[in-house]
Write a structure and sequence with these properties.
The protein is built from three helices and 17 strands. With 284 residues, the protein is mainly beta.
Amino acid sequence: MKTHSGFRKWFVIGLLAFTVLAAVPVAQLRAEEEKPTGDLTTAILNQYVWRGYELSRGSIAIQPSITLGYSGFSANLWGNMDTRAYSPADASYPGTWNETDLTFSYSKTLGLLTVGGGYIYYSLASLNKDAADRNDSQELFATVSLNTLLSPTLTIYKEIDHYRNWYFLLGISHVVELNKMLSLKLAASAGYLLSTDADTYPKFDSSAAATSDKFNNFHEGTLSASLPIKVSDRITITPTLSYVFPLTNDARDEMKGLGLKGTTVPSERDSSFVVGGITASFSF
């Protein structure tokens, strides 16, 4: 059963959209020379892994998105289609569109700092009627970046709907321009999960079984490399490769316990993942 009715969901989304638009003074809109921006992107990956959690296995994840921005404000619509949703009991389980996320955000550069924040609505219903109907999720987030070497960035997320937790993500990145068309981007990040609900984010024991305690520890680390290829002023093709791994024994036990590998022994599931693929972007 969904946490919110359809009416409430779209009311919240509509209200936030109106608030974002109303926050920009009319005089500023008239005087501002900056033009609206847009981006259409599609990623094709060998696996969908989110914050260290294995959300697909043995299939291709197709993830299209569209982003519109103006004067620091942006709105993004993102989705995930699993070409063969994993089911240990049914090898012919069909693919399905199983997630749609809507993000509103604002950011502003203040000298050496870039600060921002926003709201994310995760619609987790599956279009496949036989798939599990997961509860939707909502998050508020705030972020701060240093405009210096490695661009260190801290983002804090607070889930406010069903999966009650705080999530802290610290990341660094560096771009090496190889030539006018090609560059190399290297990035690393570390996540910390602070659960406020033992039912939705419990701590797992060494057998990868859930306990009655709340998870509170460093979670996953991610190392990634990408190679953006600027085909034209508007089109960029980017091969990507990432390695996701647990930062602590607690995280390893949890990631195994919530993994997808079909086995009666949770501790035999995977806790680290190699995610690779290609992304195509069109800016306008």
